[in-house]
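Hi support team,

I submitted a single chain yesterday and got back a structure, but I'm not sure I'm reading the token output correctly. Could someone confirm the output below corresponds to the sequence I sent? I've pasted both exactly as they appear in my results page.

Thanks,
R.
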Amino acid sequence: MLKPNAIGWFDIYVDHLDRATKFYEEICNQKLEDLIDPTGETKMKVFTGEMNTYGSSGALVQSNHYKPGKGGTMVYFSVEDCELSESKIEKVGGKIIRPKFSIGNFGFVTLCEDSEGNLIGLNSMK
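Hi R., thanks for writing in. Yes, this is the structure output for that exact sequence:
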């Protein structure tokens, strides 16, 4: 089995989803599609991509939890199991922001701060 790329997904936080969608569709020359958030907490538009090809995809996200600006881009690292990685976060100087939770067919996510205060996500299918 091939080792996956380090980055499996990204979120770009926005205040105005329609305005941001127009911007990114124009700049990236691609149509963004609606993506239903299984938690029901956010509005999302996804950059189209193929799950089985090189690189990663991501989405524009309008959320009450996070805002755009400095530190507004979220990077998700692919891990074997969020819970296993979560158990190491505080030991290496990080902080758990939101423990492992389901994102439906897309697996599980843990949100945390790294040792420098950057917000990152962990994503696993287990």
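A quick pointer for reading it: The longest helix spans residues 17-28. Let us know if anything else looks off.

Best,
Support desk
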